[in-house]
Write a structure and sequence with these properties.
Elements lengths: L14 E8 L4 E18 L6 E2 L13 E7 L8 H11 L4 E3 L2 E3 L4 E3 L16 H10 L24 E8 L5 E9 L41 H5 L6 E10 L3 H18 L11 E10 L4 H22 L17
Parallel strand pairs: 4-7, 10-11
Antiparallel strand pairs: 1-2, 2-4, 2-11, 3-7, 5-6, 8-9, 9-10
Helix pairs in contact: 1-2, 4-5
């Protein structure tokens, strides 16, 4: 396996990613779109998820495909970013047709960033507009770090952010991951220099420092975020994509497997105070491929994407936590 040309989820042909953020709010939204509706499913392993329209992604539900997937900050307020994306899709004539009605199907998930130092005293929920702005900005190229749904994200010890990574399988199948990393746990080992995901790094994509040479890692759980706020402001939300033709049931299995990537990159993971969730989508533009290998590649991409999110985070006024690049000589 090798990384895709961009090392982004948009290495999967036909996908675009849009981001929008408000730096004063310290929050934002991210959308994944395709040229046509796509098959998708989801798996939740955190104890505190926030979601919209995820029930229809179960394999036994009648909806075959959806039009977009949204990741957003803002806790429950952020679910309104899906409505902004729906507006854009409706104007483009995209959606599920029922008689004369067209209904865009836009599942979404949110992370909690309401206590991160940003100004949250709005009179009108800002996430609808952020969702529409993210939709309008969708492209095959996008930045990582303090952007989109990752704008206000925080890990246990450092700023989190938006991350992405990709792999091309031996048969040409593309697999990519997109993540907004805001976990209870730490993405770096004690000392904040080395990444837990280092064994899976491809080249110097998050610094190239290699694994921490120390042993006995994970026995202490320092948490600057808990000291600044509490343990309840968290969640890692992600999207896995492939061009291989998969059913909804197969997408769900890929989403399950991809959660290993959260566990490889974050310590601890899947806590009662995380809403850890992974969507998995198939554009179906390529032939069927080995679902086991796709799930494995998804977990590797997600681990790397989480580290890349933290690696790329940039400082901003009123930050509660430092950035990784501020702690490395």
């Amino acid at each position: 396996m090798k990384t895709g040309p961009k090392n982004l989820i948009t290495d999967v042909p036909g996908l675009r990613v849009g981001n929008a953020q408000n730096d004063t709010l310290k929050s934002g939204a991210t959308v994944v779109l395709a040229e046509a509706p796509f098959t998708a499913s989801v798996h939740v392993m955190g104890g505190a998820p926030g979601t919209r329209e995820t029930d229809l992604l179960a394999p036994d539900k009648t909806v075959v495909a959806v039009d977009a997937l949204v990741l957003s900050g803002g806790s429950a307020y952020g679910l309104d970013a899906c409505s902004g994306v729906m507006d854009g899709l409706r104007m483009a004539g995209r959606g599920f047709v029922v008689g004369d009605a067209v209904i865009p199907l836009v599942p979404g998930a949110i992370l909690f960033d309401l206590l991160n130092g940003g100004e949250k005293d709005w009179e009108e929920n800002p996430y609808h507009a952020l969702g529409r702005k993210a939709y309008d900005s969708a492209s095959t190229d996008f930045d990582l770090g303090t952007i989109g749904a990752g704008t206000g994200a925080l890990t246990a010890m450092l700023k989190g952010g938006l991350g992405s990574a990709s792999l091309e399988l031996p048969d040409g199948t593309m697999v990519g991951a997109l993540v907004a990393a805001n976990p209870v746990g730490s993405v770096t080992t004690p000392g904040d220099r080395y990444f837990y995901a280092a064994p899976f790094e491809m080249g110097p994509e998050f610094g190239g420092l290699g694994p921490d040479p120390a042993s006995g890692l994970g026995l202490t759980l320092e948490n600057r975020k808990a000291e600044a706020m509490s343990l309840r402001e968290n969640t890692t939300i992600a999207i896995i994509a492939t061009d291989a033709a998969l059913t909804k049931a197969q997408c769900q299995r890929v989403a399950v497997a991809a959660h290993d990537g959260i566990g490889r990159a974050t310590v601890p993971a899947h806590t009662p105070f995380d809403g850890d969730l992974v969507f998995a989508l198939s554009t179906g533009s390529a032939p069927e491929s080995d679902v086991t290998l796709i799930g494995h590649a998804a977990s590797l991409c997600l681990a790397r994407a989480i580290a890349r999110a933290v690696y790329a985070a940039t400082p901003a006024p009123n930050d509660l936590l430092p950035c990784w690049n501020g702690n490395t000589p």
